[in-house]
Amino acid sequence: MPTSTFAELGLSAKVQAAIAAAGYSHPTPIQVQAIPVAVTGRDVLGIAQTGTGKTAGFVLPMLARLENGRARARLPRSLILAPTRELAAQVAQSFERYGVNHKLSLALLIGGVSFDDQLKKLDRGVDVLIATPGRMLDHFQRGKLLLTGVEILVIDEADRMLDMGFIPDIERICKLLPPRRQTLFFSATMPPEIQRLVNLFLKDPVRIEVARPATAAGTITQLFRYCPSTEDWEKREVLRQLIRSERVKNAIIFCNRKRDVAILLRSLQKHGFNAGALHGDMDQMSRTATLDAFREGRITLLAASDVAARGLDIPDVSHIFNFDVPWQSDDYVHRIGRTGRAGREGRSLTLVTPDDFRQLKDIERMLGAPVRWIGEAPTEEELAGAGKRRRGRRGNSRAAARGQRTEKQALARRGRPQRPPKPSAGGPATNGHDHGALPRHAAHPEREHGRGDAPRRQPQAEASRAPLQGGPSKARPPRREPKAANSPSRNDRGAAGELQGTQAPLMHQAREPRPSPPERKRPDRAPLTIGLGEHVPAFLKRRTRTAP
User: From CA 348, how far away is CA 224, in angstroms rounded?
Assistant: First the structure.
């Protein structure tokens, strides 16, 4: 005959009085099996779906075991690790509620709160330390916390720890704890990595499994609504229709992305709904204020990411709406587990688009039965194509198309073909000139074979390297006059007077008319190729030329 009262679970009188004051009289199945074992000091592996009372399953026996003893500064007697700030704060509230008759000190180490306030509590000594892994390790690395006095370790929502990447932190923390301790390990699912953690850090645990892993509570009515369009604005319209058609007391609306949470919140508020938002980018003060407003009924709809899907105990949530089908079937169980808690009735409604059929099949395999549709269901042909379409934001493809059009337009303006052949290594583009692959300044023989000590940029009108000894000189652009005056060719004259005199004669000579030079032809000599064919920049030719 199953146990039906808390008095038969081996709890102390103080704990039983606190339970009665809180209004509870009958334990849940996980509490019936876990509490008697935990009170004796053995390790416990508890597996149950969310909303079955796992928190009280480890809080109550911990209170009974910590009644005797006293905490010392920076040496907590027990440690509870939670994956999120909200879940850690919720566990702290449970301790305060059930430990009203105990003089146990408590410290909550989470992000978004001042370090100084937390250090003051640690310096006074705490019996119960509740923390997220990151903030607890911060205190430890600063030398403000010692873990050698921990007698009881609790890891709550272990599968969520895995999803959030906390497993390395959990392993490090467990190695810092004394080997002789009691470990209470609770999880809704048991993936292989969690099983490895159990085998590593638990000693002969008592496995308590009150339901098949990853199953939803039977008090939840699960419904699915098909949306043929994948546009988010049409999904938001369907969501508003569902909210108006249901008798919603309060509801949590889950999105896969944090940015979609913000967009959905603005849409709901624009259409007159009393809504708030909760996601990981919010600061701790805003997250706490939003949760308190939702619990107290000042907010009816809560648009949230998966930060609100695990462990949050909001007892009377009437509806859960999945604006997006979760990527993992386990997340679906945790989301809808926010309703139908403690034996209450709840309803969950999920919007499904053609891009979600693959995730929908995973949910059906987990539930062991086809889903129940409201409205028009997808056809068998549509369901058969599950997994062949990929969900994506069309903005990326549009941006790529715009980039291709821009490149084609730029090539057209330059007179180049839209799809030029791949050039050789180091070969520049033709730039529309009839000089092969050489730049326009490298197409002249005098540029290729000038003096080694000549300036880097010589006038292109220079016809030869001979000194200017009589005869009309070549006309040069005015902006080239200073360079022409200092060119090495004038040094060959040996006339100091010409070099040191005024530049007026030279400028006068530069302005004299000159005969048109004969048409030049490309030199009949092979260019310096160095393995690049004729696609050789001029600067490479200069550097590889051998001095005479």
Answer: 8
